[in-house]
Amino acid sequence: MSDQRLGANFINRQSFIELDARERATALFDAGTSRELVGPFDRVESPWLEMQGVTPQEDDGCVVMKGKIAGKAAVVIALEGAFQGGSLGEVSGEKMTAAIDLACADNEKGIPTSAVILVETGGVRLQEANLGLAATAELMASMLALRKHAPVICLTAGTVGAFGGMALAVGLASYIAMTREARLGMNGPEVIEQENGLDEFDSSDHALIWAIDGGEQRYATGLVDALVDDDTPQVVKVIRRFVSKGVPPVHRSSEVALYRSRIEALDASRQWDPKELRALWTTNQVEEEKR
Amino acid sequence: MEHIELNYPAKRKVSKKAHTGVVGSGDLEVLLEPAPDNIAKVSIRTSVDGFSKAWKAVLDRFFSKYDGAVRIQINDAGATPGNVQLRLAQAVEVSEQ
Amino acid sequence: MSEFTGVRGTVWFRGLTGQASSMPGDPKSVLTADAPLGKDQARFLCVVPDPHARFPCARHGEVGLEEGYTLATRVREVSEQDKNTTKRPIIAIVDVKSQAYGRREETAGIFLACAAAADAYGSARLKGHPVITFVVGHALSGAFLTHGYQANRILALDDDGVMIHAMHKAAAARVTRRSVEELEKLAKTIAPMSYDVRDYAKLGLLYKLLHVSNPEKPTQQEIRKVQGELIAAIEDARSSSVDLRNRLESKGALETRKASILVRSRLEAQWREG
To answer: Is A212 close to C106, i.e. CB distance below 8 A?
Structure first.
């Protein structure tokens, strides 16, 4: 990539990461086709936060919007990473699940409807613990039902990324897109360091974190389907492409024999340079999504 | 957690509701809605206690220039006065588009 | 209170199936057996500690890479075999410490290994297999999402050694910047935060709470009682829909998940509007 082209691209970029959840969701839709459901003025907030001295947000950190993407009916669910780290509580969790269920019901009525989930989360909101965990399980169940009919697309752009139980939900998606800045992993570096020590994971080593969880690595090992610049038009293009593609013939989470054999082939007696897995696992070249 | 209620006289009808902000650390969300009467009522819910004087000062200043008949709800997680002013101004802008 | 011992899984697996081993070629941490349960031949699965596991961070009852893909394999096997015949029950016996916390795990995509197992369980349920979970010890976080939480019906032992939660107390206290004592105090009045399975039962997610005298040494009579309850759960699952709506329609949910019910009905109403 030439410096000249990089410079021009960079200057003209419209950062997707700098948008809040509502702006991100709105950006994905065909102009003028979207409306928000159960927004802040519905005031369905968490019943559990105020009693713990935490100020609730009226949409509970989850935006649901309905409209058209590339001319097709779609629902977009966006988690607000700036509110409680995007963590899943009772209300935000149920908003996600109910939206997926409604999309599924529309499909069954003959209205093909895709779902896009913009994931910025550290996982379950500990102030709501078991309701957040149950919501994650219920969301996963609903995604499994919807993805038979229409694609469920997950995008994590950063800065929070996708961690915790929600990373499993992302694993069930029909298509996953990430920016380079984003991270996807089940357990965050701090948790690993706390549980198994500094040698296992030095959570202050940012290079290590992105080498393992970062978008480029996930894409280069075939664990996600697209690596996209932090540029809103590029993000929209990728999402539209996946909506248009429809349901994939096989979902990644169903390719058990393939992934099981890959794990069996790993030498578990040592740590690996994450780059070793790139060669082993995929023929993808690391490329920007330009199309 | 503190709840602060403030009232101000209002003159002008407002037609459009507006929402701005995020309840992130050091930030707040503002919900602004038209009111049916000539009173502007502000309800503040904040997780940082002990600043009711500062809140009154900021809102007094805001309403010295704004005369809309509104209900304003604020959910706050420790925003600075500057940030509060910003979010209020953003909300007004949206409501007058 | 409720330290993880890792013995209950094997105890109950053996009690309910008469077997306690992994299938040939599988890691020793995943017990799989087909055994009679009422009129059915059910598949039982359990994750147990394996001190000689290949992955160092998955030796003490954690759900790691191998466990995720092995569970997925053994559940999908049932689905495949029953494609054109009666859908056999799948019984997850759960006593799992946590997911595996390791650099190798993250590098190799443990999020996908766990998703694969959840996919297998959930997809089997959608095909009509009654999936029943029996929590006999710990059911934590990602481990429970992977092994157990996709079930039609969840049963648990009513016992201090049973803990269903999103994060261990010490870690949860650290992350939320409270002391463990403060956390325990909050948990007393905030049902979803509680570490007590009797409070968990109030959330309406459990089908039944079962009492036995000593969970680590069940009597023959108690095992037969549990089998009876599992059979009843299977029948209940077979006679209702394959989704998880029962969790939100339960008596407990009507009490403790009012906000969930409200947001769902609001969303439904507004979905149709435009």
So the answer is: yes
Here the tokens at position A5 are 């082209």
Which residues pair with residue A88 across a beta bridge? A124
CA distance A90 to chain C (A): 6
Residue with tokens 């209300």: A91
Residue B56 structural domain: 2-95
Residue C5 CB neighbour total at 10 angstroms? 15
pLDDT digits (tens, 9 = 90+) for B39-79: 999 999 999 999 999 999 999 999 999 999 999 999 999 99
Confidence tier at A35 by pLDDT (50, 70, 90): very high
Token pair of A56, please? 């609730």
Considering the domain architecture, whether residues C172 and C47 belong to the same structural domain is answered as: yes
Residues 132-161 of A with CB under 8 A from C: 132-138, 140-142, 144-145, 148
Residue A4 maps to a domain = no
The distance of Cα B51 from the centroid of its chain, to the nearest Å, equals 15
Residue closest to A65 by CA, chosen among A104, A102, A26: A26
Q: What range defines the domain where residue C271 resides?
A: 244-274
Interface A:B, Cβ pairs < 8 A: 42
Full residue range of the structural domain in which residue A118 is found? 14-281
* CATH code at position A112: 3.90.226.10
Domain at B50, CATH number: 3.30.230
Tokens of B30: 């503002």
Q: Per the CB < 8 Å rule, is C107 touching A277?
A: yes
pTM of the shown model: 0.96
What pLDDT digit, counting tens, does each position of C87-145 carry?
A: 999 999 999 999 999 999 999 999 999 999 999 999 999 999 999 999 999 999 999 99
CATH of the domain at C19: 3.90.226.10
How many domains is chain C partitioned into structurally? 2
